[in-house]
Amino acid sequence: MTDEQSARQIAQDVAARKRSAESVVANALDRLHAADNAYQLLVALDADGTLARARDVDRRIAAGQRIGPLAGVPVAIKDNICTSFLPTTCASRILDGFRPPYDAHVVEKLRAAGAVIVAKTNLDEFAMGSSTENSALRPTRNPWDPQRVPGGSSGGSAVAVAARAVPIALGSDTGGSIRQPASLCGVCGLKPTYGRVSRYGLVAFASSLDQVGPFATDVHDLALVLSVIAGHDARDSTAVDEPLPDYAAELDRPPGKLRIGRVREHFAEGLDPPVAAAVDAAFETFRSLGAEIVDLSLPHAPYAVACYYLICTAEASSNLARYDGVHYGYRTPRPADYVDVYAASRAEGFGPEVKRRIMLGTFALSSGYHDAYYLRALRVRTLIKNDFLGAFRSCDLILGPTTPTAAFRLGEKTEDPLAMYLADIYTVSANLAGIPALSIPCGFTPDGLPIGMQLAGPLFAEARLLQAAAAYQSRTTWHTRAPASNRS
Ligand code: GLN
């Protein structure tokens, strides 16, 4: 079915003028509308403007201009990534109606490559959450079972791809927000190495952890998008000037004999048996591909969630100080005095989880507690990083579960923040260490919910990660399955 084409196929067809970008995008808009009715995944969409931008791509092609590798590919973008042509709200009341004066680096790159940004997708407010239930707008639903969450915080982007409305979406990942929803929605998601992709125009949550990355239905499309969005950018001082491989071309090379690490701590208490079984089967698949499985330990893994929630809240409390009712977005309508402009705007503009994090972070940074909490967390972060450095001396990649369970029910964890935080138990370490990690589908629970597995690699080893994942996908068909309502 043409609508379910991969990004690379669409780009080829559009560049060869077999299909127009306009027709591809019109189709994506129809599918997004249908998916939004069913799963509430959108924050903003402007059909007329989007079709005009698609026609512009067609004009560039007709005029014989060189067009990039994403010609006519419709892409949905998480609503914490700045777009000058669509509002950017972070699914927060405090940024209600905010329209950035500029495009994020990744948006510029996508558009220069011929992609057409079709919509902004729902998220947990300011990317804080693991279920998209913290959106100030409405929760998004999982297309495999609408009574369940899609994961978060990039839930809308994961659902846009899972529902086959668009082949590609972008998310951001501070502690798992690409990999966890990818896993719960049965699609592929990649968090690049910290510094591989510019954060310019990504609304800051925890600046030392945030990265932008793609969702797609297969690893080849992940690679294609990474090649487009990665690279140096002078506007983000942490965007490194490392050589940029052609990730898509790298996939044609076999990964060679891989040593794949199996982390003891990943298979401890709390891991749901169907998830453990699916990941174990994936180890067997890799073994049959010639890989050697290496048992190892990441001894500080049990401290990762605590460490992450101290560091991310500390950074968030500082980053979110800029929302004050004065600079942009929401302002309280009837302030008592000028101090109340700030206090009431923030009290009315932020949702409960964002407030919780600002308070936790402010406390962790406050004098008298700074050394006991924040400084200590930084030290633990170094230990976690060193664990990985040690592990990658005896293996090339680490394979494990992305999440302890498949998608949980809407409302199941909203009353218990700690239970929600534990959804990130396997994903936060990669952010703390800065290393790249991806999630791809590897099975289903007996109830028919998708299960994802996580592959993590050393800094800047995206090519190796993608090669291994592509080898797995050449042997398996989990990633080809779509939720029932989209099968036709
Ligand atoms: N779920 C994690 C959190 O709530 C991760 C969020 C993210 O990666 N943006 O912080």
Description:
- With 488 residues, this protein is an alpha/beta fold.
- The protein has a domain at 3-253 and 436-486: Amidase signature (AS) domain (Amidase signature (AS) enzymes, Alpha-Beta Complex).
- It has helices spanning 7-15, 21-39, 47-62, 105-112, 155-162, 179-185, 219-229, 247-250, 273-288, 304-319, 338-349, 352-365, 371-394, 417-421, 428-433, 462-475, and strands at residues 42-44, 74-78, 116-121, 168-173, 188-191, 211-216, 259-263, 292-296, 397-401, 437-444, 450-456.
- Helix 7 (219-229) packs antiparallel against helix 16 and helix 10 packs across helix 13 (371-394).
- The chain is globular.
- The chain binds glutamine (GLN).
Brief description of this entry?
39% of the residues lie in helices and 12% in strands. It is of the alpha/beta class and 488 residues long.
- CATH homologous superfamily annotation of the domain at 3-253 and 436-486: Amidase signature (AS) domain
Structural class estimated from helices and strands:
alpha/beta
Main β-sheet: number of strands, strand sense, barrel status?
Answer: 11 strands, mixed
Individual helix count: 16
Q: Tell me the overall shape.
A: globular
Biggest sheet strand order reads 1-3-2-4-6-5-10-11-9-7-8
